[in-house]
Amino acid sequence: MASSKGNFFSNLQIRHKLWAGFGLVLAILVIVGLGVFPSLVNTEQKTGSMVLERQPAAAAAQELAHRLERSLSALGFYLLGKEEKHKQNYLEGLKKLAEELEILKTNQLVTSDPELSELLINIDKDVAAFAAVRDRMITLATTDSQNFPGIAFAGEAINPVNRQIQSLLSEMILSEEGEEVSEERRALLIELGNLRNTWTGVINGVRAYLAFRSKGAIDEATLYLETTGSIAKRLQEECADMLTFEQEDGLAQFIELREQVVASLKQLEKIHGGKRWRTDAYLINTSVNEMLERIDGNVDALVNRLREDNERTGSELLADVEGTKAFLITLLLVGLLLGVLIAFLMARSICRPIQSAVVAMEDIAKGEGDLSSRLQLNIGGELGQLSDAFNLFIEKIHTLTAMDSEAKAVSPR
Questions:
Q1: Contacts 24+ apart (CB under 8 A), 175-184
Q2: Can you cite an annotated GO cellular component (predicted)?
Q3: Which of 214, 243, 277 is the last residue of a domain?
Q4: What is the mean pLDDT of each run of 10 residues along the chain (413 residues)?
Q5: Does residue 160 sit in the same domain as residue 268?
Q6: In a shared domain, residues 158 and 267
């Protein structure tokens, strides 16, 4: 029977020892894998957060700022040129702006972070306000009377009075047709013509001021207006006896209407010469620009925060990779050493008993063996069985040899 002496491992069969050795090596590999797995999971989570959430959020925020600039540029071109393509570019820009904002709203990283969420709320509020002026801007671009309050004022306050004055001056001149021709009447007619021409200069100055907002134009209109006052006064004082009924009544109305134009011209200069002379430009320079500045500031803060998070996560990933690499190398070295040790112990536990049996058999085969000696392997398994069988074989040979020797000793020669 196989010897039951020795430790548990030495009593195992060879196939069991091989399985045990492979099992230990496999266990070492599993330990190495389990040691690295948490770090890999952490790296995957950080990489996924950076690639799937932070970078798309930063890209969407930057694209939002870009779309905002393009929308404002298209609006500016539309207000200046009134071209339909610029209007469509403006409306399309607002649509894209809303889409980029929606991407940010659905980003879990942004919505779950209090600071980023607050920035997004402010951006959303200002973008909504920017989009809300769309209809107002389109109306201003297509309606000069609303966009240019000076033109609207001139149309309401000056233009009707001008038509009345032009009609009065024409009637005053036409009333001369029924009068006798004389040097005095001719001089009066010339003076009335000068009054009408001078008044035309007033209106031309007003039109030039409305078109170019030139200080020279309004000064010229004012100068012509003063001249009409002088002419009207001279007609009243020097030609009162020569005036026809139409001329006298028309001149009185002219002086009254002229005073209205004097007051209106001063008001026109305040309106058309002030900051609100063009409504769309005033809105852009005040409320719209304030919105854009807030949006730019909040978008920059959002992008900078996301960039800082990306940089920090990148640094952490590099540190994690370095740590994982060092840990993996350590585990591999330890595993390699343990594997070599296990292989050595397995080879030793298998080869040494076999070598002892080989030496004993060689001694017997060469006739130099001690038949009284036995293999003392003290192990189980196949080698233990081999040891027991070998010892039994030697014992039988020893017995036969002894019997043969005894037989030879008692037999006659």
A1: 175/244, 175/245, 175/246, 175/247, 176/244, 178/244, 179/244, 184/242
A2: membrane
A3: 277
A4: 52 69 76 72 70 82 88 91 92 92 89 91 92 91 91 95 96 88 90 96 96 94 96 92 92 96 96 93 90 90 87 81 81 81 76 72 62 62 71 78 76 58
A5: yes
A6: yes
